[in-house]
Design goal:
Layout (H helix, E strand, L loop, with lengths): L1 H7 L10 E3 L4 H10 L4 E4 L5 H6 L7 E4 L9 E3 L3 E5 L4 H5 L2 H6 L1 H9 L3 H4 L4 H6 L8 H6 L3 E5 L4 E5 L4 E3 L2 E2 L6 E8 L6 E8 L6 E12 L2 E10 L6 E2 L1 H7 L6 H14 L10 H25 L1
Parallel strand pairs: 1-3, 2-3
Antiparallel strand pairs: 4-5, 5-10, 6-7, 6-10, 8-9, 11-12, 12-13, 13-14
Length: about 300
Protein backbone atom coordinates (compact mmCIF):
# COMPACT_ATOMS: atom_id res chain seq x y z
CA UNK A 1 0.00 0.00 0.00
CA UNK A 2 2.76 2.47 0.90
CA UNK A 3 4.65 1.77 -2.30
CA UNK A 4 1.49 2.32 -4.35
CA UNK A 5 0.84 5.59 -2.51
CA UNK A 6 4.36 6.86 -3.17
CA UNK A 7 3.95 6.03 -6.84
CA UNK A 8 0.87 8.26 -7.07
CA UNK A 9 1.86 11.24 -4.93
CA UNK A 10 4.79 13.65 -5.08
CA UNK A 11 6.23 13.24 -1.58
CA UNK A 12 9.07 15.68 -2.42
CA UNK A 13 11.65 13.02 -1.67
CA UNK A 14 13.41 10.63 -4.04
CA UNK A 15 12.01 7.18 -3.14
CA UNK A 16 14.40 5.40 -5.51
CA UNK A 17 17.68 3.65 -4.71
CA UNK A 18 20.52 4.54 -7.06
CA UNK A 19 24.29 4.75 -7.24
CA UNK A 20 25.72 8.20 -7.81
CA UNK A 21 28.83 8.70 -10.00
CA UNK A 22 30.80 11.94 -10.39
CA UNK A 23 33.41 11.45 -13.15
CA UNK A 24 35.94 14.22 -13.73
CA UNK A 25 36.68 13.61 -17.40
CA UNK A 26 34.67 12.92 -20.53
CA UNK A 27 36.43 9.57 -20.96
CA UNK A 28 35.38 8.47 -17.46
CA UNK A 29 31.81 9.49 -18.25
CA UNK A 30 31.72 7.50 -21.48
CA UNK A 31 33.16 4.43 -19.76
CA UNK A 32 30.41 4.61 -17.15
CA UNK A 33 27.77 5.01 -19.86
CA UNK A 34 29.09 1.87 -21.55
CA UNK A 35 29.30 -0.10 -18.30
CA UNK A 36 25.78 0.80 -17.18
CA UNK A 37 24.17 1.21 -20.59
CA UNK A 38 20.40 1.23 -20.38
CA UNK A 39 20.49 1.52 -16.57
CA UNK A 40 22.01 4.99 -16.13
CA UNK A 41 20.84 8.56 -16.47
CA UNK A 42 23.08 11.58 -16.97
CA UNK A 43 22.41 14.55 -14.70
CA UNK A 44 23.60 18.14 -15.02
CA UNK A 45 21.19 20.50 -13.24
CA UNK A 46 18.65 17.81 -12.43
CA UNK A 47 15.71 20.21 -12.83
CA UNK A 48 13.80 17.61 -14.87
CA UNK A 49 15.28 14.28 -13.78
CA UNK A 50 14.90 14.80 -10.03
CA UNK A 51 11.23 15.73 -10.42
CA UNK A 52 10.64 12.60 -12.51
CA UNK A 53 12.38 10.48 -9.89
CA UNK A 54 10.27 11.93 -7.08
CA UNK A 55 7.19 10.92 -9.05
CA UNK A 56 8.78 7.56 -9.97
CA UNK A 57 8.33 8.27 -13.66
CA UNK A 58 12.02 7.40 -13.99
CA UNK A 59 13.91 5.00 -11.74
CA UNK A 60 17.54 4.79 -12.90
CA UNK A 61 19.89 2.43 -11.11
CA UNK A 62 22.82 4.80 -11.72
CA UNK A 63 23.05 8.58 -11.94
CA UNK A 64 26.11 10.04 -13.63
CA UNK A 65 26.83 13.71 -12.95
CA UNK A 66 28.45 16.14 -15.41
CA UNK A 67 29.22 18.77 -12.81
CA UNK A 68 32.92 17.94 -12.37
CA UNK A 69 33.64 17.61 -16.09
CA UNK A 70 35.01 21.05 -16.94
CA UNK A 71 35.67 20.10 -20.57
CA UNK A 72 31.89 20.01 -21.17
CA UNK A 73 31.24 23.52 -19.84
CA UNK A 74 31.90 25.98 -22.67
CA UNK A 75 30.50 28.42 -25.20
CA UNK A 76 32.79 28.70 -28.23
CA UNK A 77 32.24 31.05 -31.17
CA UNK A 78 33.83 30.86 -34.61
CA UNK A 79 33.07 32.22 -38.08
CA UNK A 80 30.26 29.74 -38.71
CA UNK A 81 28.34 29.63 -35.45
CA UNK A 82 28.43 28.87 -31.76
CA UNK A 83 29.07 25.61 -29.89
CA UNK A 84 27.57 24.98 -26.47
CA UNK A 85 28.82 22.20 -24.22
CA UNK A 86 26.62 19.70 -22.42
CA UNK A 87 27.34 21.09 -18.94
CA UNK A 88 26.81 24.76 -19.83
CA UNK A 89 24.10 26.35 -17.71
CA UNK A 90 21.17 28.20 -19.29
CA UNK A 91 22.05 31.33 -17.35
CA UNK A 92 25.53 31.42 -18.92
CA UNK A 93 23.97 31.17 -22.38
CA UNK A 94 21.40 33.84 -21.55
CA UNK A 95 24.12 36.29 -20.52
CA UNK A 96 26.21 35.70 -23.67
CA UNK A 97 26.00 38.80 -25.85
CA UNK A 98 26.19 36.83 -29.10
CA UNK A 99 23.09 34.85 -28.16
CA UNK A 100 21.08 38.03 -27.75
CA UNK A 101 22.44 39.64 -30.91
CA UNK A 102 22.46 36.70 -33.34
CA UNK A 103 20.02 34.13 -31.87
CA UNK A 104 17.25 36.26 -30.46
CA UNK A 105 14.61 33.51 -30.49
CA UNK A 106 16.86 31.28 -28.38
CA UNK A 107 17.60 34.16 -26.02
CA UNK A 108 13.88 34.85 -25.58
CA UNK A 109 13.15 31.16 -25.07
CA UNK A 110 15.79 30.78 -22.37
CA UNK A 111 14.54 33.92 -20.62
CA UNK A 112 11.08 32.33 -20.51
CA UNK A 113 12.26 29.15 -18.76
CA UNK A 114 11.21 29.08 -15.10
CA UNK A 115 13.28 31.41 -12.89
CA UNK A 116 16.86 32.66 -12.66
CA UNK A 117 17.46 30.13 -9.88
CA UNK A 118 16.42 27.29 -12.18
CA UNK A 119 18.42 28.68 -15.13
CA UNK A 120 21.50 28.77 -12.89
CA UNK A 121 21.18 24.98 -12.58
CA UNK A 122 19.55 23.77 -15.80
CA UNK A 123 21.36 23.22 -19.09
CA UNK A 124 20.39 23.62 -22.74
CA UNK A 125 21.43 20.04 -23.48
CA UNK A 126 19.37 18.78 -20.55
CA UNK A 127 16.34 20.69 -21.82
CA UNK A 128 16.41 18.91 -25.17
CA UNK A 129 17.47 15.50 -23.83
CA UNK A 130 14.42 15.47 -21.58
CA UNK A 131 12.55 15.50 -24.92
CA UNK A 132 9.43 17.20 -23.66
CA UNK A 133 7.14 18.19 -26.56
CA UNK A 134 6.87 21.57 -24.78
CA UNK A 135 10.62 22.19 -24.33
CA UNK A 136 11.09 25.94 -24.79
CA UNK A 137 14.55 25.67 -26.35
CA UNK A 138 13.44 23.19 -29.03
CA UNK A 139 11.57 25.51 -31.47
CA UNK A 140 14.46 28.03 -31.64
CA UNK A 141 17.01 25.27 -32.18
CA UNK A 142 14.78 23.88 -34.94
CA UNK A 143 14.56 27.17 -36.86
CA UNK A 144 18.35 27.65 -36.56
CA UNK A 145 19.04 24.12 -37.90
CA UNK A 146 21.12 23.21 -34.86
CA UNK A 147 23.37 20.15 -35.02
CA UNK A 148 23.92 17.83 -32.07
CA UNK A 149 27.18 15.97 -31.45
CA UNK A 150 26.51 12.58 -29.86
CA UNK A 151 29.43 10.56 -28.53
CA UNK A 152 30.14 7.16 -26.98
CA UNK A 153 33.39 5.31 -26.29
CA UNK A 154 33.82 4.25 -29.89
CA UNK A 155 32.65 7.10 -32.06
CA UNK A 156 31.12 10.51 -32.51
CA UNK A 157 28.21 11.38 -34.80
CA UNK A 158 26.21 14.42 -35.85
CA UNK A 159 22.43 14.54 -35.53
CA UNK A 160 20.29 17.30 -37.01
CA UNK A 161 17.96 18.68 -34.36
CA UNK A 162 14.95 17.85 -36.56
CA UNK A 163 15.95 14.16 -36.32
CA UNK A 164 16.73 14.19 -32.60
CA UNK A 165 13.26 13.96 -31.05
CA UNK A 166 11.48 10.67 -31.71
CA UNK A 167 8.51 10.65 -29.27
CA UNK A 168 7.57 12.20 -25.91
CA UNK A 169 10.53 11.70 -23.57
CA UNK A 170 12.59 9.88 -26.19
CA UNK A 171 15.42 10.87 -28.51
CA UNK A 172 17.57 9.22 -31.17
CA UNK A 173 20.46 8.85 -28.69
CA UNK A 174 21.76 5.30 -28.19
CA UNK A 175 21.77 4.02 -24.63
CA UNK A 176 25.54 4.49 -24.24
CA UNK A 177 25.72 7.92 -25.90
CA UNK A 178 25.70 11.41 -24.48
CA UNK A 179 25.15 14.75 -26.18
CA UNK A 180 28.58 16.35 -26.06
CA UNK A 181 27.58 19.70 -27.55
CA UNK A 182 25.09 21.63 -29.65
CA UNK A 183 26.30 23.62 -32.67
CA UNK A 184 24.07 26.48 -33.83
CA UNK A 185 25.02 28.02 -37.18
CA UNK A 186 24.61 31.77 -37.51
CA UNK A 187 21.43 32.80 -39.31
CA UNK A 188 21.82 35.42 -42.03
CA UNK A 189 22.73 38.79 -40.52
CA UNK A 190 19.71 40.41 -42.22
CA UNK A 191 17.23 37.97 -40.69
CA UNK A 192 15.25 38.36 -37.47
CA UNK A 193 13.83 35.72 -35.15
CA UNK A 194 11.32 35.64 -32.31
CA UNK A 195 10.05 33.24 -29.65
CA UNK A 196 6.56 33.41 -28.14
CA UNK A 197 4.96 31.31 -25.46
CA UNK A 198 1.61 31.06 -23.72
CA UNK A 199 1.35 29.19 -20.42
CA UNK A 200 -0.97 29.06 -17.43
CA UNK A 201 1.50 31.03 -15.30
CA UNK A 202 4.84 32.55 -16.27
CA UNK A 203 6.99 29.69 -14.94
CA UNK A 204 4.82 26.85 -16.21
CA UNK A 205 5.36 24.67 -19.25
CA UNK A 206 3.88 26.07 -22.44
CA UNK A 207 0.37 25.49 -23.66
CA UNK A 208 1.94 26.39 -27.02
CA UNK A 209 5.32 27.87 -27.89
CA UNK A 210 6.61 29.05 -31.25
CA UNK A 211 9.82 30.26 -32.88
CA UNK A 212 9.88 32.03 -36.24
CA UNK A 213 12.73 33.35 -38.40
CA UNK A 214 12.17 35.81 -41.24
CA UNK A 215 14.38 37.39 -43.91
CA UNK A 216 12.98 39.72 -46.52
CA UNK A 217 14.25 40.66 -49.98
CA UNK A 218 12.48 43.92 -50.64
CA UNK A 219 8.77 43.20 -50.36
CA UNK A 220 9.18 39.43 -50.68
CA UNK A 221 10.05 36.68 -48.22
CA UNK A 222 13.50 35.24 -48.87
CA UNK A 223 13.73 32.94 -45.84
CA UNK A 224 10.97 31.83 -43.48
CA UNK A 225 11.25 29.17 -40.80
CA UNK A 226 8.67 28.18 -38.23
CA UNK A 227 8.61 25.64 -35.40
CA UNK A 228 6.15 24.96 -32.59
CA UNK A 229 6.13 23.05 -29.32
CA UNK A 230 3.42 21.43 -27.20
CA UNK A 231 1.28 20.79 -30.29
CA UNK A 232 2.51 17.33 -31.34
CA UNK A 233 4.35 14.31 -29.87
CA UNK A 234 7.62 16.11 -30.63
CA UNK A 235 8.61 19.74 -31.27
CA UNK A 236 7.62 20.40 -34.86
CA UNK A 237 9.11 22.31 -37.79
CA UNK A 238 6.36 23.27 -40.24
CA UNK A 239 8.11 22.94 -43.62
CA UNK A 240 4.87 23.13 -45.61
CA UNK A 241 4.16 26.60 -44.21
CA UNK A 242 7.73 27.68 -44.91
CA UNK A 243 7.51 26.58 -48.54
CA UNK A 244 4.22 28.39 -49.00
CA UNK A 245 5.41 31.80 -47.80
CA UNK A 246 8.80 31.92 -49.51
CA UNK A 247 9.00 34.37 -52.43
CA UNK A 248 5.63 35.86 -51.47
CA UNK A 249 4.83 39.23 -49.90
CA UNK A 250 3.70 39.53 -46.30
CA UNK A 251 0.00 40.37 -46.38
CA UNK A 252 -3.16 39.35 -44.58
CA UNK A 253 -4.09 36.65 -47.08
CA UNK A 254 -0.68 34.98 -47.03
CA UNK A 255 -0.51 35.10 -43.25
CA UNK A 256 -3.97 33.54 -43.10
CA UNK A 257 -2.82 30.73 -45.40
CA UNK A 258 0.20 30.08 -43.17
CA UNK A 259 -2.10 29.97 -40.15
CA UNK A 260 -4.32 27.37 -41.83
CA UNK A 261 -1.34 25.23 -42.88
CA UNK A 262 0.01 25.26 -39.33
CA UNK A 263 -3.40 24.32 -37.94
CA UNK A 264 -3.54 21.35 -40.35
CA UNK A 265 0.02 20.15 -39.67
CA UNK A 266 0.00 20.14 -35.86
CA UNK A 267 -1.43 17.31 -33.75
CA UNK A 268 -2.36 18.82 -30.36
CA UNK A 269 -3.84 16.86 -27.47
CA UNK A 270 -6.03 17.69 -24.52
CA UNK A 271 -4.23 17.50 -21.17
CA UNK A 272 -4.10 19.29 -17.80
CA UNK A 273 -2.75 22.47 -19.40
CA UNK A 274 -5.07 22.93 -22.34
CA UNK A 275 -7.45 21.40 -24.86
CA UNK A 276 -6.58 20.32 -28.38
CA UNK A 277 -9.05 22.89 -29.79
CA UNK A 278 -7.52 25.76 -27.80
CA UNK A 279 -3.98 24.78 -28.78
CA UNK A 280 -4.92 24.76 -32.46
CA UNK A 281 -6.59 28.17 -32.26
CA UNK A 282 -3.79 29.59 -30.13
CA UNK A 283 -1.20 28.35 -32.63
CA UNK A 284 -2.86 30.35 -35.38
CA UNK A 285 -2.84 33.49 -33.25
CA UNK A 286 0.83 33.06 -32.34
CA UNK A 287 1.77 32.55 -35.99
CA UNK A 288 0.25 35.91 -36.91
CA UNK A 289 1.71 37.67 -33.86
CA UNK A 290 5.20 36.30 -34.53
CA UNK A 291 5.20 37.34 -38.20
CA UNK A 292 3.97 40.84 -37.36
CA UNK A 293 6.62 41.24 -34.66
CA UNK A 294 9.34 40.21 -37.10
CA UNK A 295 8.12 42.59 -39.81
CA UNK A 296 8.21 45.43 -37.31
CA UNK A 297 11.70 44.46 -36.15
CA UNK A 298 12.99 44.37 -39.70
CA UNK A 299 11.38 47.73 -40.49
CA UNK A 300 12.88 49.10 -37.27
CA UNK A 301 16.36 48.34 -38.53
Amino acid sequence: MKADYINLVNTHIVPVKFTYHAPETLEELLKLMREYRGRARVIAGGTDLIVDMKLRRKEPEHIISLNKIKELDYIIEDDTGIRIGAATKLRSIEKKRTIHERFNALYEAIKSIASIQVRNMATLVGNICNASPAADSAPPLLIYDAVITAQNLDSMRKIMIRDFFTSPGRTSLRDDEIVKEIFIPYPHKDSESVFLKVSRVSMDLAKVNIAVLLKMNGQYVEDFRIALGAVAPTPLRIFKAEDYLKSKPINEENIRQVQEIVAEEIKPITDVRSTDWYRRELSKILVKDAINILVNRLVGR
